[in-house]
Amino acid sequence: MTQNLRFHIANPENNSSSGFVEFNTVDFIINADGRKLLKNSVRIEGDVNVKLGGADIVVGNDIKIDNRIGAHAFFDSWNITMPQSRGMIANLQEYPRYVKAVATCNYSKDDYYSAELLAEMRGGSEINGEYNIQQQTSYNVGGDADLQNPNFSIAPLFPLNEMEGGNYSFAKNGQIRVSCNLSKNADAIFGKDCVAGAEASYTITNLRLRYMTIPDDGRDNAIIMRSYYTIKNTIQSNSANIAVRVPSNAVSGVHVSFLEESSVTDPSKNKQALNTYPNFLELNYSFADAVGIVSYTITDIGDAQLKGVSAVQNSVDNSDGVGNYAVDMANYKANNGYILGLDFQNQLVDLTKDKFSFNIKSNSTSAVPKQLVYLYFHTLINL
């Protein structure tokens, strides 16, 4: 197989010599005549320059990205389309927060010293979030110092990298369009030195998509892809109910995270933080499966989080060898995690017709600070 393996680079269709900045949309085309996309081989690479108030950041600036997310923080959302066969197969919103949940539930501090995660600008300590975005000094032949922007190579947690079964045939399914929307500056970068009038910003240059292909063997093997669908809402009282339909007939679980709304307008705060829901009392999940109405009420916060960790771990491909992928609550707490959720225990539930209901209550004697709540429904795509 190695002899027939080819490495490809796709540059952005809308390439820009000056680079890409917040809110930009970047489009890539993946295609190779007579070949198949090797599953789970897609990477996004580039160089990043971070500035504070228009000047390059320096050692000592309290400016950082989330160390558990790394360069994934710069990509707010992904859209994956197969224009010649299936149309849009995934529209992944609130992507950095999803990466944060996966990292929190799976990786120990030591895992961040793997080459794979280091290449993604991740690290086991918060200080790594500062160092990894600072310019690096190199020396040329004459001995003169030269500042280089840091670079990254990430394997996005999207369906093309969460494939099981066969490899993707371009002859059968056509080309693939991958589009990403870049994150708002304040959603990717934060720190005490981020204040009004001295905002942090980033520019990504040399952005490219890499992938591998093998010859098309003509086999029509089934392909399963893991994906997710996000619902974002606001909780404004000590009791809240969220009822939604999900555009998928193959939902395997859900996980939930929170962010205090006041953090959204504070440039010093991490917008991907997994905040605690204050004074948890109980929660209830209710939905219809193939048999009838299913209702889970949970009153123990430890059990609620354990189920959330299990749901996240079962939502991703566990074969990369990085992370322990075992429910380790001590490790989870060390990661400052707070995730609720429910795994559907190997069931695939159709949520296109009947609503999924999430109800949570606090026993706080005072008003609960307004919370943003993010529900990530784990889905499967069958090609």
Structural account:
The chain has 383 residues and is mainly beta. The chain folds into two domains: 214 residues, Adenovirus Type 2 Hexon, domain 4; 160 residues, Sandwich (Jelly Rolls). It is built from seven helices and 22 strands. Strands 1, 3, 4, 5, 10, 12 and 14 form a seven-stranded antiparallel beta sheet that branches. Strands 11-15-22-17-20 form a five-stranded antiparallel beta sheet. α1 crosses α6. The longest helix is centred in the last third of the chain and has 13 residues. The radius of gyration is 21 Å and the shape is globular.
Keywords:
single chain, 383 residues, Adenovirus Type 2 Hexon, domain 4, Jelly Rolls, 2 domains
The low-confidence runs, each spanning 5 or more residues with pLDDT under 50, are none
Q: Given the C-alpha coordinates, what overall shape results?
A: globular
Please bin the fraction of helical residues.
10-25%
Secondary structural class: mainly beta
Mean pLDDT: 92
The CATH class of the largest domain is: Mainly Beta
Helix count equals: 7
CA gyration radius, whole angstroms: 21 Å
Query: What's the story with the biggest beta sheet?
Result: 7 strands, antiparallel
